[in-house]
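Morning!

This is the sequence you dropped in the shared folder:
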Amino acid sequence: MADTHHPSLRQVITQIADQLCDTIDNNFDIHVAVDTPDTEGQKLALLVNFLLENVRRSLADMQSLNEQLEDKVKERTSLLDLILAGSNDGVWIWDIANDELTLSGRWYSMLELPHDANTQSPEFWFQQIHPADRSRFSDAIKRLRKGESEHLNVEYRVKTTHHGYRWMLCRGVCQKDNNQQCSIVAGTQTDISAMRIFDQESGMPNERYLRERVEDALAEEHSLFLVYVTVENIDAILTSSEHPSNAMLYPIIQERLSNVRNLHLVASKLSAITFAVMGFESELAANDVSIEDVCQQLRDNCANTQQTFKDEIRFEVAVGAVASSMLRIEQSQQLINYAWSALRRARQLGQTCIFTESHISQDSRRIQVEQELRRSLMQNALAPDYQAIYSGRTKTLVGFEALARFRHAELGTVSPGEFIPIAEDTGLMRELGYSILDSTIATIQRWQTEALRDHPFYIAVNVSAIQLQDPYFADNVLAKLEGANVSAKRLKLEVTESTLVESFKHAAEQIDKLRQQGVRIALDDFGTGYSSLSYLRSLAIDTLKIDRSFVANLHENKQKSAIIKTVYELATELDLSVVAEGVEEAEELDFLNSIGDMAIQGFLLARPLPADEAIDQLPRGTY
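The structure's back. Tokens below.
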């Protein structure tokens, strides 16, 4: 029986095997059939068909899942492409094993390069980076490959075809192989020039951009020139309803400063009212133009004397210039300092100034004053003088004004007219302002417990534009008062129109915060600018200080006397106190007293003196 059964079963198995051969080509859509009455053979065929059905279902499920995954990948890829397009970033992939770099089209376009190769060597990337930034980039890559950092995050400059260098932020991650070695590095490159080298308010290149361009040009031994321009009448233009903010004017100014014959000039914004124009001397020679010609055309453009520009605004400007070929320049800072010096002279003289060798010797004292002023600030060696302020009618002491003074063993007494402009030009105004403020608060603390403990006095301090632009200025002042246990009402801060025009919004915020806590605010030199009345409406102030130019000989000048009467009446209506500055003659005092009850400051009643002398010189009965 066994011999007759087994062959039949083998025949069944052979039949099934022959039919299963079709599955070699992944064809599982078959049905096994056997021609046998044998029950075991039929069971085997049934079992194989059952397995085939399960395989078909599994394959169908896998195909469905695969299609879903492919759809997901397509969707995610599409989203990633959308995100990258929206971010405007360049993408890069560095295959370290093959030393091959793949760059996206956007990566090339960021550098203004043609996309003429799908892959590059890493050296190609390295050569696009500014020489001064290459070591920083190389070190960041090394740290990532060694596992010392998990992410690549490095900033550098890259060369562009037409516009010098632009700042980039490069970010990336490392993929490791089975041996935990970095095999692929991939990431993005973001153009951050707008944050690093462009002014956020105007969109113009900023001072950092200018400095970098000067450094690069000198490093490449190009002769260049700088023209610095200050727009003197921005304050007046801003009072026009058509141009309520500086931001409206900047595109107009940029256009005026960039259009000089066939020259390729770059205009940068240095401050709210000061701008720089940079160009190359080779273009001057090619167009038969002198630096004097450039300065004159810039003045004409700003004034629109030829009616070249559609906008009819006329900017009154001061212009100072310097050319590197005319001087021995070793560092970019030298050329920039000379440009500032030329501008300063232009503003003083009221005419264009081209910086030459002869100006360098004239600047030697200025440099010495700057060095010694910086040293004195570091050593807290400056102490202000204090000028008493009295009630004009009762001669009662009202308060004092703290006046910056610089006394030096070698330089002697340096006048404020000399060292304050130097502090402004060299970035020392913030330190100088806080030095005077700290000394004043210490003086108030001493006087309120000693000589003037029973008298309600205040001390006024001048505040610079750079201080009011500090978002923490008010907090710092209030913290200093609290730390010295000095009442806020004993401090009065004086601001001028020139201080406010630098950044009115920030200044107003700081002033309002201080006044809410009791610090008094005075508008100094009232009437000398264009926007005095508008500031009365928009600033929280307590006092108007009438400028000395209106006080001098006012008893002999009907126009001056009429102005002061009007100012006094206006202040009275607004519940503001008035201080008249620069009173030096008895006739001036008598005339002021005839107008109204105001405070008097001037040499007639008191001269500025060091703290102890100022107290000693107070007349008896005035406090």
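Headline: The two ends are 140 Å apart (CA to CA).

More detail when I'm at my desk.
O.
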